[in-house]
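Hi Q.,

Before the meeting this afternoon, I wanted you to have the D-xylitol-5-phosphate prediction in hand. No need to reply - just skim if you have a minute. The sequence and ligand are here:
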Amino acid sequence: MTRNIRIAPSLLAADFARAGEEVRAVTAAGADWLHLDIMDGHFVPNISYGPAIVKALRKHTTIPFDVHLMIAPVDPYLAAFADAGAQVISVHAEAGPHLHRSLQTIRALGLQAGVVLNPGTPAGVVAPVMDLLDLILVMTVNPGFGGQSFLDSQLPKIAALRAMIDATGRDIALEIDGGVTSVTAPRCIAAGADTLVAGTAVFGTDDYAAAIRGLRGGQVANGKAA
Ligand code: DX5
Ligand code: ZN
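Predicted structure with the ligand bound:
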């Protein structure tokens, strides 16, 4: 089976001093979504940027903004990211006791809602909230930093989530984040992923279009990497 693969470059690996230009460049290079990593120095051991930066970038592209919130608490900030121009907002299952409420809030803001699973979090946590999900994001590194190595241990979880999504008959995106390269991308796709986040593998290169093509090139046709 051939799945359409979405590539979501992560701004975290871009040159922040030229952020608008970088966003225009990846858009021209064929990015499907822009992945925006929000870190609070509390839920994860790093600080990135907030809704004001997201809003400032919104006028540089028309592709969807895929906002990955690595913050706790998360609920008080959802409206600010909606207002900043997000289309998809994902919250970590581990961010607090009220995952269901966070997803309801994102949907009530008129956006697509996603849940993120850390490497140590089992696939089963999504089961009770499946009806509220538009996206499941599997971390293939521990969140907080770009440029880390892909965790092979997460591949069975990706496959398990693909089966859970297919069983719903609903169109829920299955996104992978961390250590995605032209080597690991085909393995993610073979396990059932349809959306790939890539920071270093896009912004760390000289040719964004070639990098995006390379990641997309791992599409699975009839069970074999094409
Ligand atoms: C890590 C972030 C990722 C990061 C990925 O916490 O969620 O989106 O930018 O970076 P690479 O692709 O370099 O592993
Ligand atoms: Zn991310």
